[in-house]
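// run 5 | inverse folding | seed 20
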């Protein structure tokens, strides 16, 4: 479940196979400045893949229209997102806390650590994560997100 967010980032909550799995922080909603911005609301399949950037296995969010290489990783604030999703145990404005704890729990929720240090999904069919917007929104001509029923949406 996402909150409205601000010019810096989009806070929300992560659900794995229907169960709450922590708070999230994503890039901003505003698309007028180009990427990075948050991924569209939806349900997406996740795979566990090696991250060249982090040099470890991370959950990768797949089949996101217009996006590639979206990872869920550790971090606390908007600059840490690097265009991806952060997960945390606690939240505050533009912040998720205890990210290492939340990431480790997420990995245990969706995968099994192998003797060689790699991970595999519990369910060979995969798992899904869910991102929902609390209020249906549209993007105005100014590139900002507005509630669908807002009479001031720029055309």
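// decoded
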């Amino acid at each position: 479940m996402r909150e409205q967010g601000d010019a810096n980032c989009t806070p929300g909550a992560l659900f794995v196979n229907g169960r709450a799995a922590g708070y999230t922080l994503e890039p901003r909603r505003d698309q007028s400045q180009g990427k990075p911005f948050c991924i569209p609301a939806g349900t997406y399949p996740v795979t566990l893949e090696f991250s060249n950037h982090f040099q470890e296995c991370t959950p990768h969010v797949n089949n996101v229209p217009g996006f590639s290489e979206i990872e869920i990783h550790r971090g606390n604030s908007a600059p840490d997102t690097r265009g991806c999703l952060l997960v945390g145990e606690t939240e505050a404005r533009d912040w998720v806390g205890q990210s290492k704890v939340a990431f480790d729990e997420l990995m245990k929720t969706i995968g099994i650590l192998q003797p060689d240090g790699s991970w595999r999904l519990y369910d060979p069919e995969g798992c899904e994560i869910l991102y929902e917007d609390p209020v249906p929104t549209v993007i105005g001509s100014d590139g900002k997100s507005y509630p669908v029923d807002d009479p001031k949406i720029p055309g």
